[in-house]
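Record type: monomer structure entry
Structure origin: computed from sequence
Chain ID: A
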Amino acid sequence: MYSQAFAIEPVRNPFKPMRDVALRDSGPKVLVIDAARRLIEATAGARTLLTDGTVLQRCFDRVAAATRADSARLVAALARAVSHGHARAVFEGAGERLEADLVAVHAEGKDSARIVMILKPALEERQQRLDAAEKTFGLTRAESRLLATLFEGCSVPQAADRLGVARSTARTHLQRVFDKTGVRRQGDLLRLVGCD
């Protein structure tokens, strides 16, 4: 069922070193695990990620996080996915931020759910959301650049300095973004586009 959407390779020999798998694949990063974090299936891109071990890693045939904070996020996200059917989490690891969508899939004849975990770099997803906002609301390139800078946590004066425009110009761009989106506050704008 999963392999129709992505090229997923079942874990045949849990003791075989993952370095034997092609490490240069940067395709989709999809893991199928159970509630106990046992690795069931993984795409080549996910295997590469686990081998690198900077965010998530494979430890005794289970998926583990590289940091304590990410371990807590992983356990909480798995629990939410099992109880609610889906969850989202952000793993920060050592230098790379990944956003994860977790979906619980219940197969017939199986007692426990399988969790499909789709991982993407956080910046990639934010850029997709910014591109979608640009198209949906008809934002100009300058307005989109300001919006992207605000998403990075900059204030309007900081964004103006960073973009090399006058503060009044940045405020004008922001006002036009507000007019096009129908919101009046930056926090509402971030929530609307989904990058908060």
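Annotation 1: The beta strands are 8-10, 29-34, 39-43, 56-59, 62-65, 86-91, 98-105, 114-121.
Annotation 2: The first strand starts at residue 8 and ends at 10.
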